[in-house]
Amino acid sequence: MDLAGVIPGEALIARGTGHEAPALVSEMVYDARLFTGTRFFRFSTRLLGEGSGPLGCHYLSYPEVVAQAIVRRHHRVQTAITGKIRTNEYLRLPVAVNVENLSAFGAGISAGEDILAVGQSARLAMNLPTGTSDGANRAIAVVVKVRNCRQEGIRFRYGLEFEQASDEVRREIKDYVLACVAAA
């Protein structure tokens, strides 16, 4: 659900974000998590009244106690996603990489060979977990720019910044990162 509005001291107004939005039950206490800007909030709330209001909105009790934390501007989460990186070099095949961390604006990857140079552009493809109970993944691809590179033992680690991605792919990456933070 998304926060649609606030009536200070009285209620929170929330709206379901899709077809699979949960049906809220009156008087049941819900543990909620909210991301806004660079802050993460955690609180308990309950449904006010018997159901939904106009435009599919729900009125929830204003929380008495709110725990909050500041998160990094572009929070990174640890991942274990296998991907492939393709450079624009003629006849070079895609190279398998490990996507070790991910943020809404970049990724940290590692490879068993030195494949990229700082400033170089490439295309990163990976299967991003959708977070559904069936363990499904969604194939996504983004154009990246290499921001840093270092060797650790036999592995080469690269910091990548997302340069080009569709709005849908950016939203899916952001949703994945926020879901990982909320689950922690």
From TrEMBL:
<dbReference type="InterPro" id="IPR009875">
    <property type="entry name" value="PilZ_domain"/>
</dbReference>
<protein>
    <submittedName>
        <fullName>PilZ domain-containing protein</fullName>
    </submittedName>
</protein>
<feature type="domain" description="PilZ">
    <location>
        <begin position="72"/>
        <end position="178"/>
    </location>
</feature>
<dbReference type="GO" id="GO:0035438">
    <property type="term" value="F:cyclic-di-GMP binding"/>
</dbReference>
<dbReference type="Pfam" id="PF07238">
    <property type="entry name" value="PilZ"/>
</dbReference>
